[in-house]
Amino acid sequence: MPSIVRAGVDLVELTLKRQGRTQVVEVLVDKDAGGITIGECSAINREIFRQCDEARILGEDFQVAVSSPGLDRPLRSAKDFSRKMGQSIRVHLRAPVKERLEYSGTIEVVKDNRVVVDTPQGLMELAIDNIQKAVQEI
């Protein structure tokens, strides 16, 4: 979406759903430095609404909702983990690493689709593909 690129933010998730007769476009955006502001979400919302209205791709009855992901949003990509560098997370794995499926600790390094987490068991290098669910601990 050009409006998201121009705003210098990352598209985290895009969902199109129907509520009754109304099409609803839900957009989650974020940026590396300090998160995204309400004002930035509002500006992106207006631009996406304008583009959809001009293109008539959703008909006449539609809404656009742009927001930032909450603190409890699951971490999925290397970029998600990089944004939380130095933060405490809880990780659930698909396959055990050192006979465990769950770890908690601080993100130390993110590289080559791997996350190094400082846990009470020591530094654990975890493949992002092996992570079923990871969330920031608050």
Which class best fits the helix and strand makeup? alpha+beta
Radius of gyration: 18 Å
* CA distance, first residue to last residue: 32 Å
Portion of residues within helices: 10-25%
Name of the CATH class of the largest domain: Alpha Beta
Uncertain segments of ≥5 residues (pLDDT<50)? none
Q: Domains counted in the coordinates: how many?
A: 2
> What name goes with the CATH superfamily of the largest domain?
RimP-like superfamily, N-terminal
Let me know the largest β-sheet.
5 strands, antiparallel
The number of E-state strands comes to: 8
CATH fold field value of the largest domain: GMP Synthetase, Chain A, domain 3
What is the H/E order? Answer: HEEHEHEEEEE
Figure out the total of helices: 3
Q: Could you say what the CATH architecture of the largest domain is?
A: 2-Layer Sandwich
Strand order of the largest sheet: 7-6-5-4-8
Mean pLDDT: 90
Offer a concise description of the structure:
The chain has 138 residues and is an alpha+beta fold. The protein has three helices and eight strands, in the order αββαβαβββββ.
Describe the structure.
This protein is of the alpha+beta class and 138 residues long. The protein folds into 2 domains: 2-67, RimP-like superfamily, N-terminal (GMP Synthetase, Chain A, domain 3, 2-Layer Sandwich); 78-136, SH3 type barrels, CATH 2.30.30.180. It contains 3 helices and 8 strands; from the N terminus they run αββαβαβββββ. A 5-stranded antiparallel β-sheet has the order 7-6-5-4-8. A 3-stranded mixed β-sheet has the order 1-2-3. The longest helix is centred in the middle third of the chain and has 18 residues, at 38-55. The protein is elongated. The protein starts with a helix and ends with a strand.
